[in-house]
Design brief:
Neuraminidase; five-stranded antiparallel sheet; Serine Threonine Protein Phosphatase 5, Tetratricopeptide repeat; 13 helices; disordered N terminus
Length: about 650
């Protein structure tokens, strides 16, 4: 008989009809008579309605003893075992029912395929789903037919990939974060020193924060300024600098839909009152699971709204320069499927998107995928993150550190016994292929050069290659900022504050292929001396510099030439704007070289470069009486000329007030 049953799946449904050795009149159904077996079957149905499944099973088995060909009893026994995930017994009962009459209930082939898939019987499951497509052509099976087609692709994928594993060695984060309660949905800052999690105490969800000290996560404390009593806050994302929090609230109070997105930000060391993101972001349905890009310009989130490809889709909204959010756009059919996509995480490289899906081909349930944004702005076909990161079970959301080496996620699958349903947060080394592009960061504190007190200031980071602003921020009174810097570009950082000289830094990452150490610095701003006004009447030829030199770190020249490179325009225009704000300011431009070449040639070159900057400012409209240029050649080095880096530092252009 086993050979007969196997033939159903390995050949075709037509062969089943030919091989079947039972006639239709031999089959017993629940409606075919009023025997003792039928009365036992009816009693079993009553037990099921009374939620007494074990008693129902006993009666179903008695029915089978009285009437071995009672097909409905075999089906009900199969359903009993299926609901309890006793897959082998469910498979046996469904197979017996199909053997009795393969046309009695076409859906049995679909359910049988699911039971076989759970047992990793991929070939058998594939044939069961294919057979269902042949016999289940009635309109009432339309939705199941779509799922069956998806399952065929899934079992084929599993058959090919189930024995191929990716490196995966998850470690729990420790008692500072994981407790006897449920912890999930981690998000962290670029420096991996702050983590925000959602903790569920069985009554409500709240946010908790842990700080990393000496490599260990400290005891998480509640984010009291955000958490509200009798309200679930969850599905959060914290910006890479730790100053902006987006999250989900589903309390229905003054909201636009069943779940809305809110935000709060840190100003002068304190969280502001949370605000609903408004009707542009929140629709009438379900909006949740936000992820903010490193430059804070794009918000990715999960939404069930009109225009979706499937049930829940991933959408993206863009923030304008004035801080308002544009209408969100669907990421399209490359990312979104007729199934559900959720839990997006856009990495700080701003190109790699990690997300969860039950619509893309995977191992079953919700799997984790990643996709990379292409040069033309489109998304590449998502890739499954592989086994055993993904399993037959539903996988949760995942975030990846800025350096791309470490992934964090929450799961219950490693817990046993009484803790088997408890979610904890784990980390693991992300394998090379799934890593994002290299990202480092600059973390700095802006202070007064004289008093050493922190200063608020205006910050701008520009992509010098594209000549466009990458990031802008108003630094608060604590003077601290943290900005991720994706590799592959060269960045200019400019800081301005009224009453102070401008300051610049350069980060040359255009040829970086691997992660580099972060840039940690103290930035000292020089206050403009009050004597400037009086020196403005002193002849330019005799006035002495009254401030320390400020290096223009983003002014570049062609090799051995005084010709300015186009990428210098960003810095020179910043200097022009600075001078335009106060007509009393006069500057001396200093040119310096390294020690390559003769002393006389270097002196001539440095003077020509200083004058090139002077001429640029004059052409922009700065009065020539406010400018002078002086070359110093190689006579004032700031570093050794024995290394490439030292020579690079010595080749510089500065300015001083005079």
């Amino acid at each position: 008989m086993y050979r007969f049953i196997k033939s159903v799946f390995l050949f075709s449904i037509s062969l089943l009809f030919v091989s079947c050795n039972l006639k239709a009149q031999d089959i017993v159904t629940r409606k075919s008579g009023d025997t003792k077996a039928h009365r036992l079957f009816d009693r079993a149905i009553t037990y099921e309605r009374q939620r007494l499944p074990d008693k129902a099973l006993e009666d179903y088995k008695k029915v089978i003893k009285l009437e071995p060909n009672f097909i409905d009893a075999h089906i009900r026994i199969g359903s009993f075992y299926y609901e309890r995930k006793i897959w082998s017994k469910a498979e046996a009962s469904y197979s017996k029912a199909i053997q009795l009459d393969a046309t009695y209930e076409p859906k049995l082939f679909y359910t049988l395929g699911l039971a076989q898939m759970e047992q990793k019987k991929f070939a058998e499951a594939k044939e069961s789903f294919k057979t269902f497509l042949e016999v289940g052509k009635d309109e009432k099976y339309a939705s199941l037919r779509k799922k069956a087609n998806m399952h065929i692709t899934t079992v084929q994928f599993k058959a090919e990939n189930n024995n191929r594993s990716v490196p995966f060695d998850p470690k729990p984060l420790g008692p500072g974060i994981n407790t006897e309660l449920l912890e999930y949905l981690p998000s962290l800052t670029a420096d991996e020193e702050t983590m925000v999690i959602t903790r569920n105490d069985g009554y409500q969800e709240d946010f908790y924060v842990s700080e990393k000290v000496d490599g260990e996560w400290t005891t998480a404390f509640p984010l009291k300024s955000i958490n509200r009593p009798n309200t679930n806050e969850g599905a959060q994302t914290i910006s890479q600098d730790g100053k902006l929090l987006f999250y989900t609230v589903c309390d229905g109070r003054n909201d636009y839909g069943s779940c809305d997105l809110y935000y709060a930000e840190v100003v002068n060391g304190r969280w502001t009152k949370a605000k609903n993101m408004g009707a542009q972001i929140n629709g009438a349905g379900w909006d949740t699971q936000p992820s903010i890009s490193a430059d804070k310009k794009n918000l990715y989130y999960t939404s069930k709204r009109k225009g979706a490809v499937g049930g829940s889709d991933i959408w993206m909204a863009t923030r304008a320069e004035d801080g308002t959010w544009a209408k969100p756009v669907n990421l399209g059919e490359i990312i979104n499927t007729p199934g559900d996509e959720a839990s997006p995480f856009i990495h700080p490289d701003n190109h790699t998107l990690y997300f969860m899906s039950d619509g893309h081909t995977g191992f079953g349930g919700d799997d984790l995928f990643y996709s990379r944004r292409q040069a033309d702005g489109s998304w590449a076909t998502p890739k499954n993150m592989g086994y055993p990161i993904n399993t037959d079970s539903d996988e949760g959301s995942l975030v990846v550190s800025a350096n791309g080496k470490t992934a964090y996620f929450a799961t219950s699958r490693f817990n046993k016994g009484k803790n088997k349903n408890r979610y904890d947060i784990y980390s693991f080394d992300l394998y090379e292929e799934a890593r994002p592009a290299p990202v480092t960061y600059v973390k700095a504190k802006v202070i007064d050069a004289e008093t050493k007190q922190p200063l608020s200031a205006d910050l701008d980071i520009t992509d010098l290659g594209g000549q466009r602003s990458y990031y802008q921020e108003k630094i608060d009174d604590q003077g601290i900022f943290l900005i991720p810097l994706p590799a592959g570009k060269q960045y200019a950082l400019n800081i301005e504050k009224e009453g102070y000289l401008i300051h610049s830094e350069n980060f040359a990452l255009e040829n970086i292929k691997t992660v580099v150490d972060p840039f940690l610095m103290i930035i000292e701003l020089q206050k403009i001396p009050p004597v400037v006004a009086s020196t403005a009447t002193t002849p330019a030829s005799s006035a002495e510099p009254i401030t320390k030199p400020i290096v223009l770190k983003n002014v570049f020249f062609e090799t051995g030439s005084a010709a300015l490179k186009p990428m210098s325009i960003v810095e020179l225009d910043k200097l022009y704007e600075f001078l335009s704000k106060d007509v009393n300011l006069r500057i001396q431009l200093n040119g310096h070289t390294d020690n390559v070449g003769s002393d006389s040639d270097n002196m001539v070159l440095s003077d020509a470069r200083a004058n090139a900057v002077k001429e640029y400012l004059q052409d922009k409209g700065i009065d020539s009486n406010r400018l002078r240029a002086k070359g110093f050649g190689e006579t004032v080095p700031v570093a050794t000329n024995d290394t490439d880096e030292g020579r690079r530092q010595n080749r510089r252009t500065e300015f001083q007030l005079f």
